[in-house]
Amino acid sequence: MYRPYSWQQSQMQRLENAIEHRRLPHAILFSGTQGIGKCHLADCLVYTTLKKHSISDNFKTLLDAGTHPDVHHILLPDDKKQIGVDQIRDLSEQLSLTPQLSEIKIAIIQPAELMNRNAANALLKTLEEPAGNTLIILVSHNPGSLPQTIRSRCQHIPLNLPTNDEATAWLNGQGIENSQAYLDLASGAPLLAKVAAENDWLGQYQGLLEDLSALTEHRLNMVSASAQWQDVEVSVLIQWLKNLVKILIQSKMNGQITSEMAGSFLKNLKISVDRIDLVKLFDYSDFLNQCEREISNNLNRELFLEQIFNRWAALSPT
Questions:
Q1: What residue numbers bound the domain in which 244 lies?
Q2: What is the Cα–Cα distance from 1 to 51, expressed in whole angstroms?
């Protein structure tokens, strides 16, 4: 359960060496694209740290149950779009107390980029003056959204996508059929590909391609398209569109597609790639990145989706 994935071995080895020689920093930032196992590596780090510093034999049982008194998780509340200042203030108070079952207190904040401004300022005070023997782990899909003052006080450990062979081998080991297709859909992120397979995202993605084709052919308008995709997570929809735009840009610039699945995406899109302007594609890619950063805001979902589909329809000339 607390073994790092094969593509995380080198980072975990360096962390284990730091723990062994008591050189672990007070704060660590794990960053990288969604679906590569950042939270899992954070869990592995917590386990290895407690194994070294615990004064209790049942630390793993408590850790598995989520009840270890010296480990604190800060997550996005179910009814909120941001991590609030009260959560961070409560955490700071907990970290100021004497640890109960180990020599160290640990906090995990994820996704860290969803802290609001006041929460980030409150965390900064804790990072500037860490109480006693503490370890604060930040997990972020988008570290650029974190204040520089926070990033500069953490040891930043960026995590990359695994190689295609590593990812497909892991997916095959999970019993995922057609693993390469789902990996293509997830832009190479194996954990996201596993979720995609379990939820039949490939079938939904093909439906998206049909709607995108209808938009460019004016058989579907942005209002109707928005209504049809109301039940899909906006973050997932944006990821699918980013994946498609990446394929289109590759096709426009290189004149070839290296992935068989990517080729089938274009075939099912049923529009002429030649008629799409490359500059507009890059603009749309920037727009999707901006959308991704704004998801945490209190947005009007219907208008947000309409804007996404309207900008897509504008890619192809009338």
A1: 200-313
A2: 14
